[in-house]
Amino acid sequence: MLATNLKSIVSDNVLHAKWLNTLSYMENAGAKKISASEHKEDVNLIILKHAAEEHRHAYYLKKQISKVDESLCKTYTNAELLSPNHTKYYLHALDIAVCRYLKAVFNLSGYDLKFAAYLFVTYAIEVRADELYPIYQAALDEVKSKVNVKSIILEEEGHLEEMMNQLVSFSKDWESHAAEVIKIEKALFEDWVAALTAELPISA
Q: Cα 118 to chain center, whole Å?
């Protein structure tokens, strides 16, 4: 469904600009979530790098809008996003659900809970990004668009590897817990795609 949606989106300048803006919003929201999970003093290099790169992705995607139509999507207001309610709910809902799961399983609280949620939520988001961005890039290539997200694809692959390395240190059973988090993310993502589909022309 997503591949079909993206073909429809990249063929319409207004939809395409909103799509880029929506991705930019989500990358920016992710960067802010990472920064919010930081300890006041104990901040490692990977967290700083990751937050900086997510912010840069948000900036890069926003800048790509000018290749579609520079008059569109200057802000993150609802009118300039696709499925704004689901878009704004998705990451927040994932964070809350994962915190609940980790609290129940590991009995964590405070900063420990925030950090564990950062690890698992970010892992799930990177798995999703590794699927979504290549599908989007394929749709762009098909119409020979000036827009491209190849640099983001490479960085997201690196992020996924970094998250896996950190999760190994967090728990020897990290994969079974990550699988549960992926299930939570999948349900939220499918709701988001369904809302997105409902906004597109019937032919999509």
A: 13
Residue 59 has pLDDT above 80, yes or no: yes
- CB contact at 8 A, 74 and 66: no
* 15, 9 contact by CB (below 8 A): yes
If we measure between CA atoms, which residue out of 122, 121, 104, 102 comes closest to residue 112?
Answer: 102
Backbone angles phi, psi at 72, to 5 degrees: -100, 155
DSSP string over 11-67: TSHHHHHHHHHHHHHHHHHHHHHHHHT--SS---HHHHHHHHHHHHHHHHHHHHHHH
Tell me: the pLDDT tens digits for 119-177? 999 999 999 999 999 999 999 999 999 999 999 999 888 888 889 999 999 999 999 99
Segment 175-187, tens digit of pLDDT: 999 999 999 999 9
Output the pLDDT for position 159: 84
